[in-house]
Amino acid sequence: NEKRLNNLARNYEALRAKGESVYMEPDDLADLSLWYDNNHYPEKSDEVMDYALSMYPNSTMLQIEQAYRYLDKGDLDSAIILSNLIEDDMTGDLQLLKARLLIENEEYEKADALLNSFPPEDLDPIMVANMYMETHFPEKAIDWLKQHGQGLEEEEDYLSILMNAYCYTGKYEEAIELNR
Q1: Would you give the end-to-end CA distance of the chain in angstroms?
Q2: Which stretches in the chain have pLDDT values below 50?
Q3: Minimal CB count within 10 Å: which of 17, 22, 93, 137?
Q4: CA angle 130, 70, 115 (to 5 degrees)
Q5: What is the sign of the dihedral through the CA atoms of 125, 56, 4 and 66?
Q6: What's 123's DSSP letter?
Q7: pLDDT tens digits, residue range 119-131?
Q8: Rounded CA gap, 132 and 8, in Å?
Q9: Where are the alpha helices (DSSP H) in 18-155?
Q10: Which helix (H) or strand (E) holds 178?
């Protein structure tokens, strides 16, 4: 994956340096933007996301990514505005974003109601638990994984989030048991 991202970056930069248009799929552009961000090139990351949205203005996936970027920058209002403009409201990713925005806005009951109103098979239990951890609700992460994580108990991401949640809540014995 790292090699693929290096190649995407090299191609993107070469074409942009020549002033040529870059054709990449929306998910590749989103991955490239995240890769730049993770490698401490926030300006490049912003440039790629702006370019991606200019190429694919109606891409739900890119709009969701941009809303999360606003959240990462502390711009809750822009994230809310963008999430309300997204027309495809049937995706679990969008519902997860909207729940996150409700939590950030301290509307906890609405967030829970939204997540519980959506078919569980359309929401990735690990993503929901991770969202709860990121918003400092480890108890909710534990509850969500226990209720909706059947069949995932051996997966590394499941175990990692659950162990972290147990540690954050002072349940060290439970965390140690998972590590055996």
Answers
A1: 30
A2: none
A3: 17
A4: 40
A5: negative
A6: S
A7: 877 888 999 999 9
A8: 32
A9: 26-38, 42-55, 60-72, 76-85, 92-104, 108-117, 125-134, 138-148
A10: helix 172-178
Question: Which amino acid is located at 115 in the chain?
Answer: L
Calculate the alpha carbon distances from 65 to 10, 68, 96, 109 in Å: 22, 5, 12, 24
Cα–Cα nearest to 24, from 58, 56, 57: 56
Residue 112 to residues 88, 137, 141, Cα–Cα distance (Å) = 21, 12, 12
**DSSP state at residue 121:** G
Q: What's residue 90's pLDDT? A: 63
Q: For 93-146, what is each residue's pLDDT tens digit?
A: 888 999 999 999 999 999 999 998 888 778 889 999 999 999 999 999 999 999
What are the distances in angstroms from CA 42 to CA 14, 33, 35, 49, 97?
19, 9, 10, 10, 22
Q: What is the pLDDT of residue 102?
A: 95
Whole-number pLDDT of residue 77: 95
User: From CA 93, how far away is CA 125, in angstroms rounded?
Assistant: 12
Q: Are 161 and 126 in contact (CB under 8 A)?
A: yes
8 Å CB contact between 22 and 15: yes
pLDDT of amino acid 31? 93
